[in-house]
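User: Sequence in, structure out. Go.
Assistant: Echoing your sequence, followed by the structure tokens.
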Amino acid sequence: MANEVFRSRLTPEQRATALNFTIDPGFVHHRRIQTILGPGAMQWIDEQIKNLPDTPDWLRPQRINHIYTHALVWFCGHLRAPSLGELIANGRGRLFCSTEPLAPCADVYSQKSRAVSRWRPKGKYDMRVEFHYSISNISSDTIREQLRKGGPIAMVAELLSLDENLSVFAPLVMGNPWLEPGETTPTFDIMWFGSEFNQNFVEDVDEFAKVREEPLPIDPAPMRAVSENSFKRALAEILGDAVPKDWGGETSDYFAAHLHLQGRPITASFLLKGPARFAPMTLNHLGKNNDQIVRLAREPADMLVVQHCHDIATPVRDTLRAFAVQPSRPRRYCVIDGRESLRLLRAYGLYEKAVALSRKTKGR
């Protein structure tokens, strides 16, 4: 599995490195970006272009594209622009910034002026989404080939039209998700991790570090006996928190305000799923239009966590990443499946206590 390869290639310390996310542009719509950013931002862009060193004719347009892209990604972060999934689920907004899976577009080579790519989300959405764009704004053979084949592409796009079944967007920037050094110098080559970084694992969190001493179970079956509420209470005990009470307006099942990654304070929102459906978690577990992940993403948390008593399917992991890791607002995300949940409870000596509590409260 891709996430297990990522887990083995980097240490918890390396995965906790603070890096900046951006987009390596292969498509830039300069005119539309100028209209959206306005005179103030364009003054900054003009200054950056003016200060460019002498470069070969073939390189200068690329440098200018990166300047436009950095300004637009910053603007999206300041605006708190949503991901596409959030925008569709919430039914409001005109601008999104996220990495999205696109269907293949064979016409990107044959069309002379304009092409259309279609959104291919992991979950089920009532709304279809299309991206209409000018071929002339494609500046990279790499992005052209990616559009032809389909797959994940980082982008900023503006809503053009909307009806009951179809949303049409105009891409402003399209390219590969890209990492840049942040406040500290990374100890690994960051260029290979743009599509994976910001995923953390349960052992990466300082408060859960004891799991490193506990072997990973081969079967999640013992978690069938642990209710969602009991697991929540176990989390609270590990973290020294009071057990939060459920209420109708909650956007997450648990909010942890005092976690740490390699000593750096972070907050985390948890979506917890118990054994009411003891089966691998698919997107069908998460409500219409993945609304449970939508609500989780609304939390002002540094990390979004999905926990389940059984396995967690790849589409759920991919969807969680799409909501968490936006180029303009990257957040950490973590998946704790049934085996990891059992490992956590055993590491802190809480499995039997959780089972006993689950039995005690089952009839209530």
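User: And one key feature?
Assistant: The chain has a mean pLDDT of 90.
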